[in-house]
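Subject: for your reference before the review

Hello V.,

The reviewers asked for a structural picture of the protein, and I figured it would be easier to keep everything in one thread rather than splitting it across files. Below is the amino acid sequence we used in the manuscript, unchanged from the supplementary table.
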Amino acid sequence: MNVAIARGPGGKYGVGMYVPPNTISNDAIETIFALKETLTDKKKPVTAENIKRLTGIEFRHYISRDQENSDLFLKAGQIALDRAGLQWNDIDVYELGATGPENNFTSTICQALSKVDQTGYDSKICSEATDVCTACTSSIYAIVGMVRALLCTRRYRYGMAGGSEVMSRMNSLLDANDAFWGDGAGVLVAEKTEEDRGFIAWVLGSRPDLAHYTHSYGKGTRFNENGALPRVEMMGHEIYEFVLQTVPELIEQTITETNIELVARGQKEITKKDIKLFALHQANLRAIEHMVRHDHFSKDQIYTNIDKYGNTSSASMPMVLTEAIEKGMVGAGDLVMLVGFGAGMTYGATVLRL
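And here is what came back from the structure prediction:
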């Protein structure tokens, strides 16, 4: 038995994404920082040109005042369900990656499901539903958790997982790091199948010795941060070096784990060149370009959208996958690797066949 992305009418894949309508340009960010210049570090001027040069970001989307994180998830989830030909109460297990949950409790996934119109359903939604928070890796952990639940629970048939993020409310646009984030959601629906497709293997890990590299400020329960303006504190150079070392190693390790599973199934081993798409966390375009130059993957094997959406944290990997499928870059039989990393430090990757 395998777990694969669900296929609906016309062979459509059950993937979906949503970004809120408010588009914020680099020029707008520069203007905001200029108005707050007395509060920001003048040694690090935040300009439209610098943002694009350092990160590749040109735009990002911010949630509106009448929206919450659960609303973003519902929009993306409905698109994925429609494509899969399913309804909300068909899903047996929900796993949602949320770096910026609506509240510490109730979970964002339960708040989202409480908004689903259950009129006319044979039964109410009583599914397994979990929030996952491993920062920008959250959607990878959520997807793997969903796959495990489907494989381990005989009565389960369908699952939904992904990332939904409201990073604009995790910062106050007072620090250069605040300029990079965007809001959005990316979701996939999975099904059990006897077909030769689906999730093959994965690698999850952490480096808690590097926990000091980045953390959210002013949104938790630390006593000395009570009432503080929210922001994301990052050791940018150290994180950049971590990514350049960890991601190539993670890719190799995930290929190894995939081959162990394929051999056990009596199938042929693969190499990196067999991966049609690396759906990478969209944190910094320059880091991705660096890894292309060093032959960790080719330019033809990646799709990026950080220029349009900024860093949408854990939503970025399923958003990349969704757009790549929509654009016809990948299809039936193709191998895809989702690759993420985030605060913790955490990292994760999984290989699947469409």
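For the response letter, the relevant points are probably these. The two ends are 15 Å apart (CA to CA). The chain has a mean pLDDT of 92.

Happy to draft the paragraph if you're swamped.

O.
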